[in-house]
Amino acid sequence: MKKFTVIGLGNFGFHAAKALFEEGNEVIAIDTDRVKVQAIDPYATEAIVLDATDKEALRSLGLEEMVAVIVSTGTRISISIMICLYLNELGVKRILVKAIDPDHEKILLKVGATEVIHPERDMAIRTSRALSRPNMLDFIPISDDFDLIQISPPQEFLHHSLKDLNLRAKYNVHIIAIKKPAPKGFVLVPPADYEIQAKDILMLLGKSEDIKKIKVLM
After folding, report:
1. Residue of 103, 108, 121 whose CA lies nearest to 79
2. CATH of region 127-216
3. 59-83: per-residue pLDDT in tens?
């Protein structure tokens, strides 16, 4: 069982803690607000009223044993920076911190954040993409150069085999899996003779610049 800690139980922190707990993980949820701590209590292994800017209080929790710690302290920029610094000094391996703006992100990365979260921005981008390109179901940046997307197949892909489409040669992208309608399930690394069907969901991996060529088809 994996162990996580969520510091700050506003809207984002509450739902992050709840989702992790419902996935079967151990979750320590922390906030200075007793009402928020009581609200998360049914969805956490341990819910604690604690000031996370108290380094010794954090040390007592053994957070270095956590898979990750999420910090979501709202608009209190200085507090999130201080907590991030302390977590880094305490040896937490993975520190995810919610940022308010690009300058906040730069500071967080300098004091030890391993990942910076912009939930409003990221959700706005995903929503806009879903509206402008309804065939694109999900978009995940894998690195600075590579993306993974899930799409409904463009019309010109239908009833053609992967060999005929030859996406690797034409677009330099790879179909790594295909989701089928239930109960047919999931086809991992589909064979060359597989024919694309209308209800298939294609999982494509490739460089960002090449993925863009596929998006144009949608």
Report:
1. 108
2. 3.30.70.1450
3. 999 999 999 999 999 777 899 999 9
